[in-house]
Amino acid sequence: MAFSIKPHIQWVGKIDWELKHFHGEELSTHRGSSYNAYLIQDEKTALIDTVWKPFAQDFVANLKKEIDLHTIDYIISLHGEVDHSGALVELLKEIPDTPIYCTANGVKSLKGQYHGDWNFQVVKTGDTLQLGKRTITFVEAPMLHWPDTMFAYLSDDHILFSSDGFGQHYASESFYNDLVDQAELYQEALKYYANILSPFHKQMQSKLKALADMNLPIEMICPAHGIIWRENPMQIVQAYEKWCHQYTENQVTIVYDSMWHGTSLMAEAVAEGLRTENQNLTIKLFQMGKADESDAITEAFRSKAILLGSPTVNRSVLPTLSCMATRLKAASLQNKIGASFGTYGWSGECVKVLNAYLEEAGIALAHEGIRANWNPDETVLQSCRDLGKIIAQKCREQ
Ligand code: FEO
Prior knowledge:
The chain is of the alpha/beta class and about 400 residues long. The protein folds into two domains: about 5-245, Ribonuclease Z/Hydroxyacylglutathione hydrolase-like (Metallo-beta-lactamase, Chain A), CATH 3.60.15.10; about 250-390, Flavodoxin domain (Rossmann fold), CATH 3.40.50. It contains twelve helices and 22 strands. The strands form five sheets. A seven-stranded mixed beta sheet has the order 1-2-7-8-9-10-11. The longest helix is centred in the last third of the chain and has 20 residues, at about 380-395. MU-OXO-diiron binds next to helix 2.
C-alpha cells in the first residue's frame, strides 16, 4: 500500500492496527501504530526509512509495485531502531550497493544490529543531498531518542521528516492530523512524549531552539509513527515546547496497589481530600495490579503531584510500585511534588521505601507520608483526607 502525500512523495510504510505493545511488552499501544517510510522522486530518488522487521517482505514487495528498486539512488536512515530499519536487510538483498545516509552513530547502530557491510554515507547537521529541484538538509537530533537520530528537511515542499519526534503510536487510515479525532491524537502524542522522549527533555529543549534558529519554513511534519501534521503543523512543535519545559496540568495522580483493600481505602480517602479542597483538580487513580503502566506514566507526567501507595510487603512494597518507581525515575519528571501512604502489619517500611522512590525520581516530598497499622480506621482515613487537602493546597501554590 502506498499513499501520495505530494505528486512526487509517497508514504510507503505500514499501518499496524494489531500492535498492542511496543518495545517488547514495555509500552502499551492501545490504538496501534504505523511505521512511516517515505519515497521522494525528483531527478534522484530517495527512500526515507523502512518498516519493522515482521513486515519487511511485504514492504519490499509493495515498494516494487511503486518503483523499480534499482532506481532508488539513496536510502536515508533517520534512526536505526528496528521499527524503522527492520526491512533494510530484505531491501538490500535486492539493491546491495545503494548508499545509506545516516549519522556516525547510525552506522554503529545499524552495523551492531545487522552486521552488514553496507555502503554507509555518514552525514552531520547541515550536510545536504541534492535530489534535483529539491534538496534534503540533515539535522542531527541525538538522544531524540537514540544517539543516532536525525531529522531531514526537504526544500521546496518545506517538509520536516522528524523520525520519532512529533510521532504517536496511533494507527489511522486517514494519515493527516486534521482528519482524525483530535482528543485521541493529543492523548497519543502526549503519551508518546511522556513515555519515550521525556527522559531527554534537555536535548529536546536545545533541538527545538536550534530548529527555531534555523528559521526553516515548515509546511508539513512527517514523523516516523502515526499521522502527518499538515494543518498548523507547528502546533505539535509548540506542544513539545511546553512538554519539555517543567510541564504540569492542574492534575494529581495517585499510583497505588493493594493486597486486601486497606491501601485502596487510603487512596480513595486521599482522593476525597483532594476533591474537597479543590474541585477543579483533575484526580486520577491507578491501581497498578490492574492498571497500565504506560498510561499511569502519561498521567503522572501531566500532574503537579504524584502520590504513591502500597502496603508493606517483606520489608518493602508491592513489586508493581517498584516497577513504577523505575519508570518514574527514567521519565525525568520535572516540577512535581509527591507523598506516600500505605498499610502495614508489623515491620512497616512502605512509606520509607516509597518516599525514597519519589526522591530518586526527582519528585519533591510535600509530606512525610501516612502509614496505617493493619486496616485504616476512621482516624487514619481522616489523615489521608487531610493529606489530600494539603497536597491540593500545595498544587494551588505551584
Ligand atoms: Fe520508532 Fe525509536 O523507533
